[in-house]
Structures are given as structure tokens and as C-alpha cells.
What does this fold into?
Amino acid sequence: CITTSFAFMPNEKVLKSFEETFLNPKQVRWFEQATYCEVSFVQDQIRSSVKYDLVGNFISSIRYYNEQQLPTSLLYKLKKKYADKKIFGVTELANSEEISYYVKMEDDKYWMTVKFSAGGQMELFEKYRKA
It folds into this structure.
């Protein structure tokens, strides 16, 4: 059973695009903007938000999850370079051309975010000393 609340009712094309892509989403909520529709939902314990243009074409998505859902090749790179850090969250940003991953980590002294670009390039995106 799909749990859906509509701040508005998306048109058939947008709704069809969503339903063809995501099976059994939970906590589905739709929002309308001037040039796109956005849907937020949970699927397989991953909180997601997807934007579609008004004719149902994918624009972008954001997904929030933990290290178990991170692609294995990226997890390997992280564990190799930052073996002493604890991963506590991943934000995945995607559009029609690329996917980027922002991995939140910590140790006793620092909070940090490592970014993986579309080509798998890893860079330290931000780092903050704990108080």
C-alpha cells in the first residue's frame, strides 16, 4: 500500500514517471513549483526527494542513507584513506548527467565531509574541529 499525501495532485505524466521508477514507496508527499514537481518519499529505508519537469522528465534527486548503501568501490576508497573515521551519513545528489556523493564522517577531533564526484574522484569537501 502506497501512503501518499498530496499538497497538490501531480499530472498524469509526472505521476506515471514516478510510479514506473519507484516500487512501493512510503510516506509519499508531492509539492508543486512553477516549473517542476517534487516528490519526497522513503523507499527501502532511504529518504529521497525527486524533481520532475511538468511533463514527467527527471530533473534531479537527493537521497540520504548510511554507508551500507554506498557503492562498494567508493566505500573501499573511504575505508582505505580514512580507516580511523566513523561514517555517519551519505547524501547522494543526482541529475541527468552525474551523481555526486557527500559522505559525513567523524573522529574524536573533527567532523568532515568527503565528496566523490561523478568520476569517482575523492576530495575533502569540508572539515570542522569539534568544540
Q: What stands out?
A: The beta strands are 4-6, 26-32, 36-43, 46-53, 58-65, 86-95, 99-106, 110-116, 122-129. The CA atoms of residues 33 and 54 lie 9 Å apart.
